[in-house]
Design brief:
A alpha/beta (1035); B mainly alpha (470); C mainly alpha (216); B: mainly alpha; Formate dehydrogenase/DMSO reductase fold; 70% helix; globular; C: 216 residues; mainly alpha; 9 helices
């Protein structure tokens, strides 16, 4: 830390300000005062130098005040401990720091305190409700909106990572015509001119390629565009669309419908290749409903999963059948056959089963029996990858099992286009090939990368005279287009959208577009000459008129629009907008049987033989749209724990058969197409099959995501978007090095007989108080003899503790990203992750049980457990980690000298060390997203989880001023708040009625490494397997 | 280097090997022992010195790079928080032990055979400790703070170092050890410095030696006080021989980690230290003896005795290993058992473990035979192997224990970087540089003491045969 | 041969030995003293501000409450420097022609913030929170000194960790009725010790000294 450095910093900050001159704070303040004074707000950042880490270096702010005040600097100077510091001491003896206050301060704002705004985020068109924390105009943390029906206060990893995406310096920043930068107004005028051209032929050559959307505003814009250009067309495409569901409903009900699942009533759930706990618009709600039924004492549900590759849902299953994706239709038919005798509702569907079963019939019959026993209290779910016929049969099953209306309801689709798969795109492709398309407006997410390879979209788009594309990044699609418009990030844009059950959320921006991005609405509005109005105006106009209509219909809610509007924004949801079930949707079993027969036959034919290739949306980068998000890239994949890569997944047996080892570089070729990638052997994968995760191998995006992994789309065709057979897999001979954060799979490798870190046991064992399990658990909790007199906490007002219910944890890893976002945890990159230097304070350990071929899984989130007798504390030579009176194991970054002894002596290895300066290249933009309440750690400093102590202290001060105590549940840690299944409970053990105290008293409670007498404050609740007695021995 | 031919054993095995070979007068001893100081640096010396300096250069590069980049430039990770840094530290400290043991303890036990090797060994102690002292600071994440937060002074933020931490003890133990060793070595030098002063030709040399000789005139009073002070320092440093490495061993023994958490560390660390110390002394003395013409004062007798010490300490170390494994099994702790019987023997780093066992347990067994004890080649190769073995021991203890601990989920593998290796080579460079300079500026053998010994042997018939060690 | 050293050299040797010893003790000692000087702590140095703002005038003569301008002090970690707007609440009426206030009007019209110079600074990693202190009866004067007597504000207290700990370990010395926090002249009536202990209870003060109270 030298003087120059501090000057550099000052410079950096100056530039930062310059760069962001035009940054109005938005959201709450914006309602009243839309173009609120920009610079004042922005500059005011410095006002809080004492609170905000004024630079990414945090501990090294301008003028080395990191030496704890001048007196210390005086020391350093004369001692000349290091010349650098010495020069600093000499030159910066009198730091001249500026305080830059507002010119006009928005009245809602109290510098130093955070504000929260309700907004939403649309993935696959469905909008989840978010609550975003903002410090003087900079969004810093995303939480779920508790009053939103689909998020219920929790979030997915994707949503948690939005913050990093928002401040991503790699985002596109310039509107351009081919390579020439142009202004938005220029684009508008040129579009206006072009539209006049269309006027003649009614827009015959005008096509729009959008992603699936539920936004009423966008739907309205589309309506108006089509009014103006009757011959224009809208096509919707998404790389991971699940058209099977809608088409299946067409088959079953005769009209397009979508299933909405409700797990609260479901005692038995059968998932057919459906990762419903970690994929799709319902995942957050379903996770909550699912975990709500995981209380062993209260009628616990039972989950059967049939899937080719292990997913989060598969890891949570009580019974899991690994089955190649292409065999699932046959399996479904066989299930119908099995149930038909007992369920007259199925009628002729019982006769569809054909071919020899590729699965254990015993398993099937047991499941069938279980479902049948639980009529009206069970649920069959089909995954997005399955063809229409499966979804149709599943609908029939659910109806025959009397589940419709109880555990599932079928309602009209909410997306403007029912279909957005390859078939939807085919029409457009043919038109382009025929040369009828003159202007193509693309708002879909990167079709060139995600589109079917046989469509050759890259070449096709070149044949369109005029392609207009809007996206967050200059990506593969941006390459070929004549007009490129940087899209505004969700947290920068106005908008609206509907949740999976139809509830509308108004998306409000937290900050003005950092780099002048435009919303999809802006772009579409350009075609009705309203592109200059701004989405906020469009939105208010649209909902204003909606309001009038409603008022005309006598809807009281919509009276006094402005007030209503304010409330929508405040609540984050628009009341009474939920979509109900489709009335009178009935299934004609006979007709379905007629139709299903040939379809199944075709599936059977398609099945054929040979190795199956399955494509899967990635739990980290989804379809590739999050590829440039370092948090998600470094997030360990829930099952494989792989970071910064995707891999060709295959089962141990298949690997042995093909003599492949993890890390072998493979060539997968199918139908004259081939793709190369590294192999990874995953327990629980179906044999004779390989899985290729989508979303990697990006050619063009930011510097984070480019050239990471391989692109599975290279062999993904419109005929077989999900499963294909007859692949040949060859070993190239070269090896590949993965960065895996947990490469030991079982709880006791090399046959150690240690007490398992994560306990899982059958329900019967758990319920029987005298079972060996309960005896064992008994021995793994409670105080151990300890050499010293333990500290007396009885006098304390609070005694912080945590409990994690392994039975609720699905391993989705949203908590990891939440923690990363809350605590300014740096990203270390692939090499450092490979070396074992990942910084995640909270990790989710994943252990396989049983045979590698077909294991069950336990996941165990593990952060610092705050030992009462902490081994890390007494070995620190400088008192940098010490115990608080309330039992926190505190880590004092500014005191740490980095001997790493504490980490060596930590039995849980939950401490993380800044081996390098991981924060020195943080962009000024990114700095805006740092949590000002947490020090940014410098190089050479140890860090770890402290139960979000910054939240504790904030809440403590708040409540002490109000003269009351912190109530149970009003103080949440970041991981707890993000957790979709509420597996994590935090609170004060001093309060016997607190949730956490109850959890600590739970018979399933045990302490990790209890025999070491560390007295951890984090307790674990054993996982329970609700085994089907008939199958008990399958695992 | 050129091969020193094996020492010729006396034909009659009953005839004891003398401590000083040939007939000598004070003058001949003086001349023969000062010779290598007055003789200008030869080709061989320059060659060695060149190598040493370039290795030292590597050290400078490695250290600069480490300070610039951070510990991330090393191979360390979580869970392997300590690796080469601490290994080298412990290894060098250990090597430092021979000196103090020979000079202090053997002095107190009045072992005559110590005289002609103590100077040598003490110098090595000093240089070894200097090498060791690099690491405690260097291996921290923020040395600039470590430098003075470990210094207990009434600071303005009212926090003191934590005296519960073995690392804090280290600071005191090692610095004390260094100071005492330095004084001890220097005090022993004074008479020789005086002799050098008087026998040197050029005035500048005379001046410089004169200043360091601190006005030594060899008067009876001088000698009386000298003897007294020397004995006192010997008494002071004797407990240090035990304390230093005991405290270093606490760095591990105090923790909860399987493979560290054991009470046998202090004794077996000390034994190991002496073991490696003697090995290192031999490694350097054999060539030095050859090229500096010290054969007549460093006789096979000395070498043989040192071999015997290595045999004994080697056995102690072996016993230490055996006990570790026994306790790991006997304690019934699965973590301990797994560490010693699975990870160390079959884990990814098992080769290092087996190399350690071979070098430290098998090799010393050679010294049961007098032949090996007195065959220079055997001695020399064995001593090098033992140094390697002791380094592997530290690697086994530090890295192998760390990289497989309690929770399988946190297990990681370890591989060093070029910086790690350069640092290690660099310290050897530093050591050699200092040592070669030492050989050029002061006599490698305590001349006065040798003369003294000669007189003793001459006038004390019972002292013949001299150098009975037990 | 001629003598290498003469008797005087003994004295020389002794002196040099003494100097070494003295240095070993003196240098650290000196540093410790230096570190405690107001100079090293940048205390008692009035800081010139871009605008000649006189706290004496505003607080004493006009009797304006500190919290009128530093109006987040009781609800936020930072007391906050008033926005230009706030200055003009009064100065749009009075002294609205004064040349001294030119910069203020300029700032407001051109929408350009006034860049004040920081006087009291706490390290970035020390999370000081004004609101809790003010609400528990720690007067402004305890840390900022007699601002009402400063033409240009200067740092009055060292604000080192030691300084904070002193009060957190024995808060009674610096406690006052919450109503009196901004009162610069307030003196405890009766026995200060006694009053302090009473206020400790009245204001329901529970000072904390665990590290995370300030360092997170």
């Amino acid at each position: 830390m030298s003087c120059d450095e501090s000057q550099e910093k000052a410079k950096a900050e100056r530039e930062e300000r310059k760069g962001k001159r035009s940054l109005p704070i938005f959201g709450g303040a914006a309602q009243k005062n839309v173009d609120l004074e920009p610079r004042g707000v922005w500059r005011s950042m410095d006002e809080r130098a004492g609170v905000l880490p004024s630079s990414a270096k945090g501990e090294f702010p301008a003028g080395a005040s990191e030496l704890e005040g001048v007196s210390r600097r005086g020391f350093m100077q004369v001692l000349g401990v290091s010349t650098a510091v010495a020069t600093l001491g000499a030159a910066c003896q009198k730091p001249n720091e500026k305080i830059v206050p507002f010119v006009r301060r928005p009245e809602e704002m109290t510098p130093g305190n955070a504000m929260h705004f309700a907004t939403g985020y649309a993935l696959e068109g469905y909008t989840s409700g978010l609550l975003v924390e903002s410090h003087i105009g900079h969004p810093t943390k995303v939480e779920g909106n508790p009053s939103h029906p689909d998020t219920l206060g929790a979030t997915t990893a994707f949503e948690q990572a939005l913050i990093l995406g928002l401040y991503d310096d790699d985002r596109a920043k310039q509107i351009r015509r081919s390579d020439k930068p142009i202004a938005w107004t220029t684009f508008l005028s040129e579009t206006r001119a072009r539209c006049l051209g269309f006027a003649g032929n009614g827009g015959a050559g005008l096509r729009f390629l959008t992603g699936p959307t539920t936004s009423p505003l966008l739907a309205d814009l589309r309506r108006r565009i089509l009014e103006r250009f009757p011959r224009a067309k809208f096509v919707s495409y998404a790389s991971v669309a699940g058209d099977g569901a809608v088409d299946g409903a067409k088959l079953a009900f005769g009209k397009p419908l979508v299933a909405r699942n409700r797990l609260t009533q479901a005692s038995v759930i059968l998932s057919l290749d459906a990762d419903f706990l970690n994929d799709g618009p319902e995942q957050t709600r379903l996770s909550r409903e699912f975990s709500g039924r995981r209380e062993p004492t209260r009628d616990m549900n039972r989950l059967y999963v049939v899937e080719p590759a292990m997913t989060v849902t598969g890891m949570t299953a009580d019974h899991r059948l690994r089955l190649r994706g292409g065999d699932v239709p046959a399996f479904t038919a066989a299930l119908c056959a099995m149930l038909a005798p007992k369920l007259p509702g199925l009628g002729a569907l019982g006769t569809l089963a054909q071919g020899a079963p590729a699965w254990d019939q015993k398993w099937l019959s047991a499941v069938a029996a279980d479902l049948e026993r639980n009529r009206g209290r069970c649920l069959v779910v089909a995954g997005r990858r399955q063809p229409a016929v499966v979804h149709a049969l599943v609908a029939a099953l659910n109806s025959a099992l009397e589940n419709i209306g109880k555990t599932v309801e079928y309602g009209a689709p909410l997306t403007t286009d029912t279909n957005s798969g390859p078939e939807a795109l085919r029409g457009l492709v043919e038109e382009i090939a025929a040369g009828v398309v003159e202007t193509l407006v693309i708002t879909a997410d990167n079709p060139v990368y995600g589109g079917p390879v046989d469509f050759k979209l890259a070449q096709l788009f070149k044949r369109v005279p005029n392609v207009i594309y809007t996206a967050l990044y200059e990506d593969e699609t941006a390459g070929g287009c004549n007009y490129f418009i940087p899209a505004a990030h969700s947290l920068e844009s106005w908008g609206d959208g509907r949740a999976s059950d139809g509830v509308v959320t108004v998306i409000q921006p937290l900050i003005d577009p950092l780099w002048g991005g435009k919303t999809e609405a802006d772009v579409l509005a350009a075609f009705v000459n309203e592109g200059d109005q701004g989405t906020h105006a469009l939105l208010q106009k649209y909902w204003g008129s909606e309001a009038k209509l409603a008022t005309a219909k006598g809807g009281a809610a919509f009276a006094a629009f402005d007030a209503v509007w304010e409330r929508w924004l405040a609540d984050g949801v628009v009341p009474d907008t939920g979509a109900g079930a489709e009335a009178g949707a009935t299934i004609n079993a006979q007709a379905l049987a007629q139709a299903a027969g040939p379809l199944l036959a075709r599936e059977g034919a398609a099945r054929g033989n040979g190795i199956e290739v399955a494509f899967a949306p990635d739990p980290k980068v989804f379809d590739g749209r999050f590829a440039n998000n370092a948090w998600l890239q470094e997030l360990p994949q829930p099952v494989t724990k792989l970071t910064w890569d995707n891999a060709i997944l295959l089962s141990p047996a298949t690997a042995e058969k093909l003599s492949i080892e993890t890390g072998d570089w493979l060539t997968v070729s199918i139908k004259q197409r081939a793709v190369d990638g590294p192999a990874m052997i995953v327990p629980g994968h179906a044999d004779e099959a390989i899985t290729l995760p989508l979303g990697y191998g990006r050619e063009r995006t930011g510097h984070i995501g480019a050239q990471v992994g391989f692109n599975a789309n290279a062999i993904r065709t419109s005929e077989a978007p999900w499963f294909d057979r007859g692949a040949t897999v060859s070993v190239t001979g070269s090896k590949y090095r993965f960065a895996i954060t947990q490469d030991h799979w079982t709880m006791a490798p090399d046959g150690r007989e240690i007490p398992p870190p994560a306990v899982a046991a059958p329900l019967s064992e758990v319920l029987n108080p005298h079972s060996t399990l309960n005896e064992e658990l008994e021995g793994r909790r409670g105080p151990q003899p300890y050499i010293h007199q333990p500290w007396d906490y009885s006098k304390q007002q609070y005694k912080w503790g945590m409990a994690i219910d392994l039975n609720k944890c699905t391993g989705c890893s949203a908590c990891i990203v939440a923690c990363q976002s809350e605590n300014n945890i740096p990203v270390v990159g692939k090499d450092n992750t490979w070396r074992g230097r990942e910084m995640h304070w909270l990790r989710v350990d994943r252990y396989f049980e049983g045979s590698p071929a077909d294991p069950l899984v336990v996941t165990q989130p593990l952060g610092c457990v705050q030992c009462e007798t902490a081994p890390c504390e007494y070995v620190c030579p400088v008192n940098a980690t010490v115990h608080s009176d309330e039992g926190l194991n505190e880590m004092v970054y500014n005191r740490c000298i980095g001997t790493r002894y504490c980490s060596n002596n930590c039995p849980y290895k939950v401490r993380r060390f800044n081996f390098l300066n991981y924060t020195n290249d943080v962009s000024p933009a990114r700095q805006m997203g740092m949590n000002p309440d947490v020090t940014v750690r410098s190089r050479g400093v140890m860090e770890k989880c402290t139960y979000c102590v910054q939240r504790i202290e904030r809440k403590r001060i708040e409540t002490r001023i109000q003269g009351r105590a912190i109530a149970d549940g009003e103080l949440l840690t970041a991981c707890q708040q993000g957790c979709p299944t509420q597996a994590i409970v935090f609170g004060s053990l001093q309060d016997p009625s607190a949730k956490v105290s109850k959890a600590h008293a739970d018979p399933r409670r045990y302490d990790l490494l209890h025999e070491l007498a560390t007295r951890p404050r984090t307790a674990y609740l054993a996982r329970v397997r609700n085994l089907n007695p008939e199958l008990a021995k399958v695992d | 280097m050129a091969a020193p031919e094996p020492a010729i054993l006396p034909n009659d095995p009953l005839e004891p090997i003398p401590l000083i070979e040939g007939k000598h007068t004070d003058r001949t001893i003086n001349d023969s022992l000062f010779d290598h100081v007055w003789r200008g640096p030869g080709k061989g010396w320059w060659m060695l010195f060149g190598c040493a300096l370039s290795a030292l250069g590597l050290l400078v590069i490695a250290i600069t790079y480490t300070l610039y980049k951070g510990i991330g430039s090393w191979g360390n990770n979580i869970p392997v928080g300590w690796a080469f840094g601490i290994i080298n530290f412990v290894w060098w400290i250990g090597i430092g032990h021979a000196g103090t043991l020979i000079s202090a303890i053997l002095l107190l036990f009045q072992q005559k055979w110590r005289t002609s090797i103590n100077r040598f060994a003490e110098a090595m102690t000093l240089f070894a400790v200097i090498c060791a002292l690099l690491f405690p600071l260097l291996h921290t994440g923020r040395p600039w703070f470590a430098a003075y937060w470990l210094m207990p002074y009434p600071s303005v933020h009212r926090i003191w170092p934590q005296f519960k931490s073995p690392l804090t003890w280290d600071v005191f133990a090692v610095s004390t050890y260094f100071t005492i060793s330095l004084l001890f070595w220097f005090l022993g030098l004074v008479p020789d410095l005086a002799a050098l002063r008087d026998s040197s030709k050029s005035p500048t040399k005379r001046l410089i030696y004169g200043i360091f000789a601190m006005g030594w005139r060899g008067s009876g009073r001088h000698w009386a006080e000298y003897k007294w002070a020397y004995l006192l320092l010997a008494g002071l440093s004797t407990p240090l021989v035990l304390s230093v490495h005991t405290i270093v061993s606490f760095d591990f023994a105090v923790s909860v980690l399987p493979g560290w958490h054991t009470t046998i560390f202090p004794p077996y660390f000390v034994a190991g230290a002496v073991f490696s110390g003697f090995a290192m002394v031999l490694t350097w003395m054999l060539p030095a003896r050859e090229f500096l013409g010290l054969k007549h004062v460093v006789t096979p007798k000395h070498l043989e005795n040192m071999a015997k010490v290595m045999l004994v300490t080697g056995m102690m170390v072996t016993y230490g290993y055996v006990m570790e494994h026994f306790i790991a099994w006997y304690s019934g702790s699965e973590y301990e058992y797994s560490q010693f019987f699975r990870v160390r023997q079959h884990g990814p780093l098992a080769p290092i473990y087996w190399l350690m066992v071979t070098c430290n347990c098998v090799v010393p067994q050679l010294f049961w035979s007098k032949r090996c004890r007195t065959n220079l080649w055997v001695l020399w190769v064995a001593s090098i192997l033992i140094n390697v073995g002791m380094w592997c021991e530290r690697f086994t203890i530090v890295v192998i224990s760390l990289h497989r601990d309690f929770l399988p989920s946190s297990w990681k593998n370890y591989s060093p970087t070029w910086v790690d290796i350069t640092l290690f080579i660099g310290t050897i460079g530093l050591f050699s540089t200092l040592f070669l300079l030492f050989l050029k500026f002061v006599p490698a053998v305590a001349v006065t003491e040798v003369k003294e010994l000669r007189h003793e042997l001459a006038h004390d018939p019972t002292a013949e045969p001299a150098g009975e060690t037990h | 041969m001629n003598l290498l050293f003469r008797p005087k050299h003994n004295t020389l040797a002794q002196i040099s030995l003494f100097l070494v010893a003295a240095g070993a003790v003196g240098v650290p000692g000196g540093l410790m003293l230096y570190a405690r000087t107001p100079y090293a702590r940048q205390m008692q140095e009035p800081i010139e501000q871009p605008i000649q703002f006189d706290h004496r005038h505003h607080t004493r003569d006009e009797g304006i409450d500190c919290r009128y301008c530093h109006n987040t002090v009781d609800k936020s970690p930072s007391a906050s420097i008033p926005p230009t707007q706030l200055c003009l609440n009064c100065h749009s009426q009075i002294w609205n022609k004064s040349p001294i206030l030119e910069k203020v009007r300029e700032s407001f019209i051109q929408n350009k913030p006034i860049e004040w110079r920081r006087v009291t600074k706490v390290a970035e990693f020390a999370y000081f929170n004004h609101s809790i202190h003010v609400n528990k009866g720690v007067g402004c004067v305890s840390c900022h000194g007699r601002v009402d007597q400063m033409a240009a504000v200067e740092k009055e207290e060292p604000l080192t960790m030691g300084f904070c700990l002193d009060c957190h370990r024995h808060p009674e010395k610096n406690l006052r009725p919450v109503s009196e926090v901004v009162n610069m002249d307030w003196k405890p009536e009766g026995d200060p010790e006694e009053t302090g202990r009473r206020l400790l209870v009245e204001n329901d003060v529970h000072t904390r000294t665990s590290c995370t109270t300030c360092h997170r």
